[in-house]
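Table S2 (continued). Query chain:
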Amino acid sequence: MTTVSVTMDSADPDRVHRVGDRKRLTLALPFKYQEKWIGGLYYVRSLVSALGLLPAEFRPKLVIVDDDTQGLEYLVKATGYPDLHRVEAGTFARASGSPGALRAYLAGTKRTEDPTVDVVLLGSIRGLEHRAVQWIPDFQEERFPEFFRPGEIHARRRLNSRSLAKHRHVMVSSEDARSDLELYYGKNRNRIHVVRFASFADTESAGASLAELRERYRLPQRFFICNNQIWLHKNHALVLRALAQSAVDGEAPAIVFTGQEHDYRDRAYAPSIKALAGELGIDEKTHFLGFLPRADQLGLVSAAIAVIQPSLCEGWSGVVEDAKALGKHVLASDIAVHREQLAVNVDFFSPTDVAGLSRLLQRYRDADPKVRPVDYGQARQDFARSLLRMLTEVASDSGEDREGRGQGPADPRP
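Corresponding output:
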């Protein structure tokens, strides 16, 4: 395989230079469109969009591995990526047992100029484990085991252990997640890549005017917004109790909730959250809109006083990144990953402190928080460069163990 590597200009560390020949990488991306985990869907969309920011000579050829066309169609429409193709998962799996058969199969598709797969991203394919990058979003089952059935905790641990044993390269989205990986699985010999993702929300939000959105969803002029699936760890109950306390102390703005209203771990959870609003006497102040079209959701974020992100656990919050991309202030739970994500335009509150969040709702009741302008384009460029560095390292690192086992250095630091 032809190798490619990346170095950084010592005079300008933000500039990336190619070393070796000019071969573009070919990435295989196992990806199935499914709305039950919308955060993962948006993550893949942002990842492909970030790759699209790279200059043409660096931009990988991307092969979607899936048995239907829905994933490819979604990414083509959502990102406009110029070099997207699809290979059926079943056929790919049968060919991948032999590198020669795999190359012959990919060449036979006539969809790529070069039949070599350099990196498998966000998954694994038999025969290409040594070139695969595993993504672990977070370690929620370790931090909050009470939210999971014992069987699922065991299954998640087994999956992570197998991935770490079989694959050299692992990607996480934050230093906080890296720390959890080391805490719960030890300082393994894998190569751990921290790649902080960025949002493209400001490019996705064109659509109805704010006045039209308010009318369509019957919303008041002033409101906060909380964009989270109603899942156990997202901490909606604290937000409702803070709103109820604010209403006792005086007039309080409404809160809009968007996101899927189903947690597979507890089917009664979302109904219980809605019932809690009634019990607290704040029905008129809460608007549960469910899962919205992306453009509508982001339009409402732009119209809101501020974004509330009360989560107990995140790997890297897409809600926070959307807010940053749209230039919004965030009221964020004081957890390590949010501290890692947010340096400006934020107020933190303890994820167990109802009174603390209530005070913030009162503070911004009549006047929006002042937002400091931030060049969010830099975050997207950093995301693209981090991806490129990781991909070129994986493509150049065939490893001595062709079965792909985690034979990397004991120290996982970059």
